[in-house]
Amino acid sequence: MNVRRYALGAACVFALAVPAFADTNVTILHVNEVAAARTLWDKIAADYNAAHPGVKVQFKYLENEAFKAKLPTMLQSDDRPDLFYSWGGGVMQAQDKAGLLKDVTADLTDAESKMSTTAVNAFKVDGKAVGVPFEMGEVAFYYNKKLFAQAGVKAEDIKSWDDFLDAVKKLKAAGITPLVVGAGEKWPMHFYYSYLVVRIGGDGALADAKANKNGGFKNATFVEAGKRLHELAALEPFQAGYLSTSHAQSAGVFGDGKAAMDLMGQWLLGMQAPNSASGKGLPDDDIGILSFPTVPGGKGKPTDTLGGVNGFVVSKSAPAAAVDFLKFFSQDKYAKEAAATSAYIPVVKGAETAITDPLQRRLADDLAASTYHQNFFDQDLGPSVGRVINDVSVAVAAGQTTPEAAAAAIQDAADQQ
Same topology for domains 2-136+309-368 and 140-306+375-416, yes or no? Predict the structure, then answer.
């Protein structure tokens, strides 16, 4: 009798501890192509579904450009995802201003307490939480060690912009394509322009331009960044057809060993193999990581980093189960599994100690030592100005516009926003 009472009591406690959601579907839309991350997320969803009868959480993938194109319409429809991938910044802020996101501040306090403050703040708008971060990342040059050796280029010697240009010239002289870029999607080229702004103007450059100080985006920092990008492009360092190459194709070019460097986010490590012709890509031992070089006379530090804080935000009509899942998703054990499997660099404090992969370790160490971390310009500045940043980055590199006209175009877009 006592045993039966105990069992009944335990069952009641369990029932009270686990929220009850009847016949609820939770859809999560994302763009992540990294197999390790997708496998982990599917596992987390399966774990949650098993512990919450009546709930079905499902991750759904949409290609990057299709995601950006379709999401605004989806969020205005009855077919909106409950949770969706976000890079934060001005795009997320615009979504909130349009009334498309849910305030989940009260629900996430415990989860946020275990995370990097920088990451948590990236998913707040005017102090309120609209989502949960899961990853911090860094844009850097990924290089092919064998091609560097073939051309007599030493990564450790590349510190300044002039060093970098010299390396590009050496690679070309050896018959090697120095750089691959998926400029057909434009945003990969904006990494060059953005990093140059940060290296030239320092950690206040973008904030000052947004505040319309010193001429806003038409100031000398942005013009010089355009000139430096044009200087690089004049060496013809990119692969043939770069203006029509997609991001996935560019990852495959790097994976096939047909270009020496790719300025890209950490996701390249998971994309280069599956997008290569062989499906195997470069082995990790043949890949190195190089920080973006400093610019002579620039205010930026070599330890200033560019990259994203990625997470999931909550749409306005998301059910309670969606927010509950975010808390479940953010558990330490899953963050450590993400680190251990090289799925991504988690924002949960201490989880990075589980990273064993040398390349992921290098990125995590860079982020830990970062003196200033800048979000992607196209996300930080919002959809309209961000689109222009991407457009002019390609136009300057292709010689289709001048650095001065590019800077003016960004300012015009900011004035109209």
Answer: yes
